Amino acid sequence: MRLINLRPSRPLAVALGFIPFIILLLLYISNSNARLAENPNDKLLPGLTTMVDAVQRLAFTEDTRTGEYLLWMDTASSLERLLIGLAVSAGLALLVGILLGTLPMFRALAGPVVAAISMVPPMAILPILFIVFGLGELSKVVLIVIGTAPVMIRDMAQRVLDMPREQFIKLQTLGGNSWHLMLRVVLPQLLPRLLAALRLSLGAAWLFLIAAEAIASTDGLGYRIFLVRRYLAMDVILPYVIWITVLAYFMDLGLRLLSRRMFPWFHRQQEGEA
Amino acid sequence: MKLIEVNQVGKQYGDNVVLEKLNFTVSAGEFCTMVGTSGCGKTTFLRMLLGEEQPSHGAILMDGKPLPAEPGPDRGVVFQRYSVLPHLTVLGNVMLGPELKTGGIFARAFGARRALIRREAESLLDAVGLSHALNRYPAELSGGMQQRLAIAQALIMKPRILLLDEPFGALDPGIRADMHELVLRLWRETGVTVFMVTHDLKEGFSLGTRLMVFDKIRRDAQAPNAYGATITYDLQLKHADKALQKNIASEVAQTSQLLAGAIL
Q: What is the mean pLDDT of residues B35-61?
């Protein structure tokens, strides 16, 4: 049988998916063991027990200085910044995207400036944000918004323009005005696409969050990683990276399930086209 | 009573003359089918009736007044595709029009008013044979069912004119016959004036009370788009006969070949 026609059964597919993870884990353990055998104080590839100890210390033991559980405190501050930033971006994307997509006059007015702003590299204006908004929470949230909103706005506007013009005409023959079109035709059809855009923006949002925290912060997941870097504390960095990855994965999964649950018509339509 | 008056209407895009010298009147209650090969401006004319496009010359009058320059609830429409809204159920699609009218700032009706709209929508959906699918989404419907839904959605506004743009062009022949029956029945029951574009000459002859053929009188092989199409036959269908149908078919085919050779 040709390779292109060879399809795995469901259990086999799951098993195949696990193989690379297991290989990575085994590679790490064997290399870590080899280095530790040579030098028991090696910090570069700490053993699993060392990492478990570190997690134990950070997640389940009160910090002696502050009396807080560091991992959960870092997670809470990072998630707060991330979620506020993404929520503001999503709101902006809906509002500006709908106006850009439905009103030709507004598109002529604001289209070019949105296109120009979306080309500004967000990291390049991070110093400006720190100068203008200070080193507090606001500048970090603003960085996430500047990093994710323009792309989402342009995506939403394009999705509106991609809607069949027949629908716009149809609504007018049903007696609808511009407001009705935005509220009853454009907005409900954009919401599932907004969730999809949010999923795609998660990576960028995390990038800008960690960058902002690395440069100026007193807590947060990115702050902690860059703080312990000074002591080559790979036993802390690696679990933190895995934790961030797990958080991002479940946010993505959550958005996907939410979309399926809230917008069954959208996914049926997509399956129909596929 | 003249419902629609078309006076010296022409339409061109740059050098491309699509329509020229259209002159006719249509009375309330007529069922006009418009045939012709693709590129002969039938759909362009329908769009002008809809208010989506404006004539380059001349004027279209409705009840003696110029047609508004944008679509409105007095002219319902069914397109070949994308007529219904994918995010609303069958019932939601039909209830949308009345909800926009009475639902206030959020365009949603509640309570007794909603129940009233719902009853009206249900009886209309019953009339088009969709009462078993009230809560399904358009993506779950066949092409024929989607067009039935689009017709019900348009008729709930009680439009004076119903514009059909090749509504059955994408359907199987068997389903098309059912749809013809449905459209004729609804036309008789509601008394709405129908304009229907089709490229199927047989469909044009078998449906409706009046047939208009859009065709080019002057065909210039060097510059196929220098002259626009106009109405070459305007027939009250009782008098139509087979020989004439054949004659029209061959003339339309000649223009079709001309345009096929000319397309960009």
A: 90
Structure tokens at A134: 């200070």
**pLDDT of amino acid B241:** 59
Q: Which amino acid is present at A137?
A: E
- Domain spanning B2-74+159-262 has what CATH number? 3.40.50.300
CB contact under 8 A, A169 and B50: yes
Residues of A in contact with B73 (CB under 8 A): 173-175
- Name the DSSP letter for residue A175: T
Pairwise CA distance, residues B195 & B212, whole Å: 10
According to CATH, where is 3.40.50.300 located in chain B?
A: 2-74+159-262
Mutate to test the interface with B, among A162, A165, A170 (most CBs of B within 10 A): A170
Q: Are B164 and B154 in contact (CB under 8 A)?
A: no
Q: Give the model confidence (pLDDT) of B77-126 as tens digits.
A: 999 988 899 999 999 999 999 999 988 888 888 888 899 999 999 999 99
Q: How far is B100 from chain A (nearest CA, A)?
A: 6
Q: Which residue of B has its CA nearest to A177?
A: B100
Provide the pLDDT for residue B263. Answer: 52
Min Cα–Cα distance to chain A from B43, Å: 13
Min Cα separation A259/chain B (Å): 13
Give the distance from CA A193 to its chain's centroid. 15
B46: nearest Cα among B58, B57, B60:
B60
A121/B103: higher pLDDT = A121
Report the residue of chain B nearest A163, measured CA to CA: B82
Domain extents in chain A: 80-273
A199-209 pLDDT, tens per residue?
Answer: 999 999 999 99
The CATH number for A80-273, chosen from 3.40.50.10300, 2.130.10.10, 1.10.760.10, 1.10.3720.10, is: 1.10.3720.10
Quick one: closest CA in A to B72, which residue? A173
- Its ipTM equals 0.87
The amino acid at A262: M
Buried b (16+ CB within 10 A) or exposed e, A107-117: beebeeebeee
Mutate to test the interface with A, among B70, B100, B157 (most CBs of A within 10 A): B100
Q: Do A175 and B157 touch (CB under 8 A)?
A: yes
- Asked if A265's CB is within 8 angstroms of B86's CB, the reply is yes
